[in-house]
């Protein structure tokens, strides 16, 4: 379990409720590092042959572990859990999610499965590859798609949230989407190269037209409105392009700093307690 800088009694509650018959490893981060970095912390400390990330609110049903493990035993290195519908979300969340997946898969070099979150099974080989990736700004859905490997998909119905409120407001989701796009493709920069080239060609053609018209018909009355439209359109295009370049420069700044994606405050590693019947019994060796 990973505690991503919670301010309540999450750690104490987990330690009190977790059965002593099961092994428990709890990674407590020094502060909130965001979900994808908390996932990276869990991946770095997990030791099993397969790994299934699961949000602690249990909105994703643990009962799905059985078909996911069955698919893994059949040879799948990645088992995606895809929601059949998004009825538990409001209409705006459903619409924006659909738009994001369509835009991402149109622009990105590697397609991600729509309606598949972090809830999936990953083989140890896939986990080791993700742990070896050096990115500081992480978009885990994109990394899951990038690593490849044989994959299967199981579908399920996600119930409504039974308690609490999500911390993922629309501003957070917007920034999450930007991280995903800028971390998975350079096509937005390439688009502005094409757009700039097209504007340059049109500007040259318009300049030739103005020169020919002035030569033949003389100087016309200056067009203030058309001039302002051209200036405003080009100015807006330049600002948008600079903003897009800034997003990529910001990512480069994080990568150059090479800071760790998470800082561990404490790791609580509690082994499984021996059954009462075996306590005090001698251990045979040899």
Class by alpha and beta content = alpha/beta
Radius of gyration, in Å, reads 27 Å
Largest sheet: 4 strands, mixed
CATH fold type of the largest domain:
Spore Coat Polysaccharide Biosynthesis Protein SpsA, Chain A
- DSSP strand content: 5-15%
Number of domains: 2
Q: What best-fitting shape do the alpha-carbon axes yield?
A: elongated
Q: Strand tally, please? A: 7
Low-confidence stretches: 282-286
Percent in helix: 40-55%
Task: Please report the first level of CATH classification, the CATH class of the largest domain.
Answer: Alpha Beta
Order of helices and strands: EHEHEHEHEHHEHHHE
Structure write-up:
It contains 9 helices and 7 strands. With 286 residues, the protein is of the alpha/beta class. The chain has 2 domains: 2-185 and 255-275, Spore Coat Polysaccharide Biosynthesis Protein SpsA, Chain A (Alpha-Beta Complex); 187-254. The chain has a 4-stranded mixed sheet. Mean pLDDT is 75; it is low at 282-286.
Give a nutshell description of this structure.
It is found in: Membrane. With 286 residues, this protein is an alpha/beta fold. It has two domains: 2-185 and 255-275, Spore Coat Polysaccharide Biosynthesis Protein SpsA, Chain A; 187-254.
